[in-house]
Write a structure and sequence with these properties.
Layout: H1 4-17, E1 25-31, H2 35-47, E2 51-57, H3 59-68, H4 71-75, H5 79-87, E3 90-95, H6 108-117, H7 119-131, E4 135-140, H8 144-149, H9 154-164, H10 172-187
Parallel strand pairs: 1-2, 1-3, 3-4
Length: about 200
């Protein structure tokens, strides 16, 4: 049985954070560890009328790619990556790791080369985001590796994440709307006025 907080988190991401509309092309990017959340996000995107495309990652594949690739391979950018960044309406990133230190044995020069080869993609992403033609959001999926980094049990870390995102509330989108409204009120105060 799926944790209802997971469904709520997907609803927050899809229907509040990026407000998926019918016809939107939505890229869902996630680590395979986050598959329970990936599933719920795809379900919510479809229910909102969006058209999801998936891009799945894993720590193992990242490590293999970086360790086995030559310099030409690390500089190669798949044409689909350019198509996505230039054309998607929405991007939802679901961050998770099985091992937060999986790349510590990889030559930093190789990691830097791979990142540098994607500079144009990042610039296009930033430009489209700034002009409003690309909506995006990201969240951490509560996983063992992040719980360990926080010195917490997985259950305690899940409770922390779901409480911080209001996913543990009966109407989490209403909670986020209330935060938005309170912040909007404060923005209206004249400069220099201390609350």
């Amino acid at each position: 049985m799926t944790d209802p907080r997971l469904k709520n988190l997907a609803e927050i991401l899809v229907n509040y954070s990026v407000a998926v509309k019918p016809g939107d092309w939505v890229m869902v990017n996630g680590n395979v560890i986050a598959m329970p959340l990936v599933n719920e996000v795809v379900r919510a995107v479809l229910r909102a009328g969006g058209n999801p495309s998936l891009f799945l990652e894993s720590d193992d594949l990242d490590e293999i790619t970086l360790s086995e690739s030559g310099y030409d391979q690390l500089q190669w950018v798949a044409p689909i990556e350019k198509i996505w960044v230039e054309n998607i309406d929405v991007r939802i990133d679901l961050i998770a790791d099985s091992n937060t230190r999986s790349l510590t044995g990889i030559d930093p020069a190789k990691q830097r080369l791979r990142q540098t080869s994607r500079r144009d993609l990042r610039q296009t992403f930033i430009k489209r985001s700034a002009e409003g033609s690309l909506r995006w959001t990201l969240t951490n999926y509560p996983c063992h590796a992040y719980a360990q980094e926080a010195d917490m049990s997985l259950r305690d870390y899940e409770d922390f994440v779901y409480a911080a995102t209001f996913a543990d509330q009966p109407d989490p989108i209403k909670c986020w709307q209330e935060v938005h409204d309170r912040q909007s009120e404060r923005v209206q105060y004249p400069l220099g006025l201390h609350l």
